[in-house]
Amino acid sequence: MKSILNVQTKSINSAALILGAASLASAFLGLLRDRLLAHQFGAGDELDIYYAAFKVPDFIALILIMGAISAAVVPIFSQYLVRSREEAWDFVASLLNVFLVFLISVSALMVVIAPFLISLVAPGFQGEKRELTILLTRIMFLSPIILGVSNIISGVLQVFRRFLATSLAPIFYNIGIIFGILFFVPKVGVVGLAFGVVLGAVLHFLIQLPVFLFSGFRYKAVFNFFHEGVKKAVVLTVPRSLGLAASQINLIIVTAIASTLAAGSIAVFNLANNIIFILINLIAVPFSTAVFPILSMRISENNKSEFLDKFYSTFRQILFFMVPASFLFFALRNQIVVIILGSGKFNVADIQLVAVCLGLFSLGVFAQGLVLLISKAFYAAQNTKTPAVVSVVAVIANVFLSLIFIDLLRSSSGFRELITNLFSLEGLNGVEVVALPLAISFSAIFQCFLLLVLLHKKIGDFRLREASRFFIKIILISILMTVFIYFALEMIPIYFRLDTANLFGVFWQTVLSSMIGILIYLGLAFALRLPEAQIIGRIIRRTGQD
C-alpha cells in the first residue's frame, strides 16, 4: 500500500486520469452523502441548519488553506527544490508551524464570535434553529486547523507529482461525513453531522501523512516568522485569500439571501450546487491541478513557450469534456435529481426545485471550470492579485443579479412567467430560489471572460482565436448531442418498456440516453478530427490491445 501511494506521475494526462478517477470515487461518495442527507432530513429546517453552519468553517478552510496556501506552496517549494532540497524542507517546516499557530488562533476567535457570524450568514434563523446552527458551527471549527496542515502537505506532494495520496484525501473526507450520518446522527441528531465533518478532516490528513514523511519531511520546531519563503507565501496568500474570500463571501451572501426565502431554500441551493460540482471536480480540478506544478516549473525555468503550449492544450481539454457534460446535465436534470436524491422525506416539489437549479447551474459550469485553470496560470506566474480582483468584481455582479432575479420572480413579470413555464413550476412555493444559480452562471461567464482578456494581456498570445473557434465547434456538436438525448428520453421507455415511475426505470432511461448522447458527441468530434477525440481513440485502441 505504501509503495502504491508513493508512485510518481510523469505526464499531465496520467496525473489527470488518477485525479479524475479519485474525483469520480469522491463524487460517488458525495452523492451517497447527499442522498443520505436528503433521505434523513428532506429539504427542510435541519438541512438548512447544517448547510448554514458549515459555511463559516468552510469559508476559513478555503480562503486560508485549501486554495491560498497551496497556491503559494507549489510555486515557492518548486523554486527552493531547484536550488536545494534541504532549503525546501526548511521552508515547509517553517510554513507549517507559522500557519498552525495562526489557524488555531483564528478558529478560537471564530468559536467565541459564532453567534455574531450566524447572524450574518443566516439572518432569517430564529430561536432553536439559530442556537443549533451556532453549536454546529463551533464544533466544525476544529476542521480548518486539521485541513490547514493537510493541504500544505497536498501542495508539497503535488510538486513531487505524488497525486494518488492527494486525490484520496477528499474521498476519506467524505467517508468521515457519511460515517457521521450513519452512526452519529442516530445518537445525537443533526449535531452528529458536525462530528462527521471533523472526523472527515482527520482522515483527510492521515491518508497523506505517510507519503509526506516518505518524501523526506522531518518535523522541526522552528517558528521563523521572517523566513524568506514564509514571507513570500504570505505575500502570495493574501491576495489569493481575498480572491477566495470573495468567492466564499458570494456563497455566504447567497446563503443569507436563501435564509430569507421559503424553508428549505438553503438545502435546495446546496444540493444542486453539490451535484453540478461533480463536473468541476471530475474534469476541471484534475486537469488544472495536474498542470499547475508544470506551469510553475516552466515559469521558474523561464520557458514561456512551453508554458503557453501546456496552458492552451489543457484549456482545450477542459472545454472538450465540460461543455458536452453541461449540456447532458441540463437535458437529464430531472432524472439525475430523482436518482440521487429521490428518497425518504425528499418530496416531488423538492425534486423539481433542485432539478431547475441544477439546469441553471449547468449553463455556466464550463466557465467555472475554466476559471480554475486560468487562475492557476496566474498563480504559476506568482500573480495572485489579478484573480482576486476579478473575483471581487464577479461577486458584486452575482449579488446584483441575484437580487434583480429574485425581485422579478416575486412579481408578476414576464420573466417569472418564462421561468415557470419553461421548467413547469406553476403552483410551486419557493420558486425564487432558482434566481440564485441563474445569477451564479451569468457571473461565472463574466468572470471567465474577464480573466481570459487579462491573461492574454499579461502572457501574450495563447491562440485565443483558435480556442474561440474550437469552443464554437464544441457548442454546435453538443447541441446536436442534446437533440438526440431528448429523443432517446422519449423513445427508450417505450422501446424497452421501462416504467419511469420507479427508480429502476429512471436509472436505465438516464444511463441509455447518456450513452447515446456520448456516442453521438464522440462520433461528431471524430468527424471534425478534433485532436482530443483522437487521443481518446488511441487510449481505447491501446486498452483493447492490452
From TrEMBL:
Subcellular location as annotated: Cell membrane
Membrane association type: Multi-pass membrane protein
Main localisation: membrane
One GO CC annotation: plasma membrane
GO molecular function: lipid-linked peptidoglycan transporter activity
Role, per record: Involved in peptidoglycan biosynthesis. Transports lipid-linked peptidoglycan precursors from the inner to the outer leaflet of the cytoplasmic membrane.
Protein name: Probable lipid II flippase MurJ
